[in-house]
Amino acid sequence: VLDMGPDSLVDRQRGAVELCRRLGLEGQLARIRPSAKPPLYRAGDGWTPYPRVETDSYTLSGGLSGLTDALAAALCRTRIHLAWPIVRVRLEDGGYVLTDESAPYDALIAAVPASSLNPLLKDIPVDLSWTDQVVYEPRAVAAAVYPPASFQNSRDWGHTGFVVSPDANLGLTALTWLSTKWEHFHADGPVAVRTFWGPPGPNPAAWSDDELKARHEEAVIALGGCHPPAEFLAVRRFDAALPHVAKDALVPSGYEASDIPHIGILGPYRDGLGLSDCIRGAWEEAYRILEWSTAVAPRQQ
Prior knowledge:
With 301 residues, the chain is of the alpha+beta class. The chain has helices at residues 16-22, 65-74, 114-120, 178-181, 209-224, 275-295; strands at residues 9-10, 29-31, 40-43, 46-49, 57-60, 90-92, 95-97, 108-111, 134-135, 139-146, 161-164, 172-177, 191-197, 232-238, 244-245, 254-257, 260-266. Helix content is 22%, strand content 25%. The strands form 5 sheets. The chain has a 7-stranded mixed β-sheet with strand order 4-3-11-12-13-10-14. It has a 3-stranded antiparallel β-sheet with strand order 1-5-2, covered by helices on one side. It has a 3-stranded mixed β-sheet with strand order 8-17-16, with helices on one face.
């Protein structure tokens, strides 16, 4: 299983790892392989050790979609509406109406890209001027599988991967040897590799998928040496991932006022970019909305 989006779960309080354990996924949690060497940094003048030590991280051996599936299955008291487009929220009868078919809701939590908040909350009297300071730039991931032992002769094999400086002129921002990094990959099995494209490197939106695959192969040769052809190679693009947030941006956790019901704001622009950051923020928002609901006469739980 190859994750085409995030695959690393940082272990911190009320983060993704704790959520996995609460959902019964502890048996699928895989650590960084103990024998794996830390990542390297490739600058224009050559290789150096990466200045930051990797945190205590995990992944799910069956893929991170298992977290979403387990969470949905655990929400036995919750109605989940799929394919239910919401283009604008309006105030009506002291609550939030999401579509023409919905009754007013007591409170709202918006877990959407910052760029979606203005059109979504256009009719709600809240200050969204801070969203202009959250910038999304196109990014892409390429994932490939090569025959076993394809890179064993590389002097850098055994490290979890590379972080690449723009002055190295390789186009990508990072490469991960998945088979080396995660303990659930078979050490003598096929070699799984991911490359990452986007800021601070060139804009991958300017390249077709075939061009990006070719650049992936060029980068793998530059970083890992010559190798047999990939048995699998796929590209996934992201237009609204890992936003850049201005240092002086004042991103609110939400809005509470006497004239509007509670609104919570969640996203990778609030308390950090990682999955654990977003999940921790969601836990905090859950407690916040419970505190708010005890102070008002809720319409529905």
